[in-house]
């Protein structure tokens, strides 16, 4: 009979070389997995125990607030944003709030009764306000005609004295989506205001979210402000420009603001965003770089090509006006500005002289031409004095801070019936030949811009 052999250790563990090999393998796999996961996000919390509130509002299934999300293809991040601990951020922003008067230099605004909200200012008049060396000089900044909202809404907006998150929906163009990831003290320090028109309100009533007989409208964290069409712009997009660029005038006591296009859902706490992207960077404004374009002319050409603004002749006039007055393509000499074209769907501001002046000058250009705000962006930024301190963060970061959705495919008409949205019949207006050729020379006033831009592009290939 054979002997039964016993051992205190498995045979596989008697080989030291094998043990070390397995340890090395598992360690390498762990580090590789950790590195992959770390690069897949563009923001990190310093503490996993930040207080996060649960969902604050439940929509009826018919509303479909999470339909038509736009997928994000990027899986890595080259420049992550680090967040401080939530409670530390709350304390720092509260201290900033208390001491704000020590940092703030007021900007004086032009007051008069004009025939239009923006004043129909000429080119030379608008540009004369870019150099703001005299603090006593009044700057045109909209509101030259009454903004058509109720007195109660105006009082409510003036009470918002810390951080305000602002959005707008006109012509029932988007859904109202609730922000995610709010900390337990955020609603004590942050106001959420959504500007809407009658068409949007009818859509919300159709889904049972509001009653038009109410005095105040509120959906989740959002306070709705009804804007009457009377005395404003025929184009709903231009009406949306008012809260987007004149937020410091609508909320005169707020210290910081975040503009969020209604196509976006904010998924990071606003206090963390303001602290990380504005306060920690010591800037006046934070905005994402455009995912594709660096030069203003690239955006102008895309605007015409994709019919984002159908009056191509007016676009040509606008760009040649800027070229004539010194618009240049982006180059390393413009640093610390890293691009001439932003993605303006998310804008964070510290309200102060520089950011308020930039917003006023931007609004005046949009009022003069069209609501495509990426076109005057670099011209205003590069020509205004004092210079704007700007944080243009990576597109990867923007995609982690928000979820983007497509615009409404349906809308509610006046009879509360649901119809497919049909774009009005718009015919593209071609550019006049004399804008392309001056004395038989190509490209007119933008010839220098285009030759420099194309020369840079050719040298990069």
What are the key terms here?
single chain, Spore Coat Polysaccharide Biosynthesis Protein SpsA, Chain A, eight-stranded mixed beta sheet, 16 helices, disordered N terminus
Could you describe the 3D structure shown?
With 461 residues, the protein is an alpha/beta fold. It has 16 helices and 16 strands. It has helices at 16-39, 86-98, 100-103, 123-127, 151-158, 186-189, 198-206, 236-245, 247-250, 270-279, 296-305, 312-324, 353-368, 377-383, 395-401, 447-460; strands at residues 43-45, 81-83, 163-169, 190-196, 217-219, 222-226, 256-260, 264-266, 285-289, 342-350, 390-393, 402-404, 410-412, 418-420, 437-438, 441-442. The strands form five sheets. Strands 5-6-4-3-7-10-9-11 form an eight-stranded mixed beta sheet. Strands 1-2 form a two-stranded parallel sheet. A two-stranded antiparallel sheet has the order 8-12. It is globular. Mean pLDDT is 84; it is low at 1-7, 30-40, 420-425 and 430-441.
Low-confidence stretches: 1-7, 30-40, 420-425, 430-441
| Tally of individual helices | 16
User: Which band does the percent of strand residues land in?
Assistant: 5-15%
User: How far is it from the N-terminal to the C-terminal residue, by CA?
Assistant: 82 Å
Helix content: 25-40%
Structural class: alpha/beta
CATH T-level fold name of the domain at 85-104 and 147-294 and 330-404: Spore Coat Polysaccharide Biosynthesis Protein SpsA, Chain A
Mean pLDDT: 84
Count the beta strands: 16
CATH class of the domain at 85-104 and 147-294 and 330-404: Alpha Beta
């Amino acid at each position: 009979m054979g002997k039964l052999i016993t051992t205190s250790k498995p045979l596989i563990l008697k080989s030291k070389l094998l043990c070390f090999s397995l340890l090395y393998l598992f360690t390498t796999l762990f580090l590789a997995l950790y590195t992959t996961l770390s690069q897949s996000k563009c923001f990190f919390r310093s503490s996993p125990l930040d207080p996060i509130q649960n969902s604050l509002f439940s929509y009826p299934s018919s509303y479909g607030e999470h339909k038509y999300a736009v997928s994000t293809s990027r899986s890595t991040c080259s420049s992550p944003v680090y967040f401080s601990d939530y409670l530390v951020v709350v304390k720092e922003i509260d201290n900033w709030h208390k001491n704000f008067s020590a940092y703030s230099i007021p900007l004086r605004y032009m007051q008069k009764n004009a025939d239009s909200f923006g004043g129909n200012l000429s080119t030379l008049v608008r540009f004369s306000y870019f150099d703001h060396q005299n603090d006593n000089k009044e700057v045109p900044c909209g509101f030259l005609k009454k903004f058509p909202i109720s007195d109660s809404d105006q009082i409510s907006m003036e009470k918002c004295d810390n951080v305000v998150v602002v959005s707008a929906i006109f012509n029932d163009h988007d859904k109202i989506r609730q922000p995610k990831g709010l900390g337990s003290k955020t609603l004590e320090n942050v106001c959420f205001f959504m500007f809407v028109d009658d068409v949007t309100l009818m859509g919300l009533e159709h889904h049972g979210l509001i009653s038009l007989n109410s005095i105040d409208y509120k959906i989740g964290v959002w306070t709705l402000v009804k804007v009457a069409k009377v005395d404003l712009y025929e184009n709903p997009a231009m009406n949306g420009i008012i809260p987007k660029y004149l937020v410091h005038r609508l909320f005169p006591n707020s210290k910081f603001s975040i503009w969020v296009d209604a196509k976006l859902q904010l998924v990071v706490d606003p206090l963390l965003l303001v602290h990380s992207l504005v306060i920690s960077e010591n800037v006046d404004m934070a905005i994402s770089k455009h995912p594709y374009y660096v030069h203003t002319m690239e955006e102008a050409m895309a605007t015409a090509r994709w019919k984002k603004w159908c009056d191509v002749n007016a676009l040509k006039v606008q760009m040649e006006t800027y070229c004539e007055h010194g618009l240049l393509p982006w180059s390393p000499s413009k640093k610390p500005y890293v691009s001439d074209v932003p993605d303006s769907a998310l804008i964070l501001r510290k309200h102060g002289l520089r950011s308020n002046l930039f917003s006023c000058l931007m609004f005046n250009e949009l009022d003069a031409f069209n609501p495509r705000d990426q076109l005057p962006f670099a011209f205003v930024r590069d020509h205004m004095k004092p210079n704007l301190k700007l944080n243009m963060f990576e597109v990867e970061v923007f995609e982690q801070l928000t979820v983007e959705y497509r615009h409404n495919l349906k809308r509610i008409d006046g009879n509360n019936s649901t119809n497919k949205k049909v774009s009005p019949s718009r015919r593209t207006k071609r550019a006049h030949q004399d804008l392309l050729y001056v004395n038989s020379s190509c490209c007119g006033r933008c010839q220098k811009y285009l030759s420099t831009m194309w020369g840079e592009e050719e040298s990069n290939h």
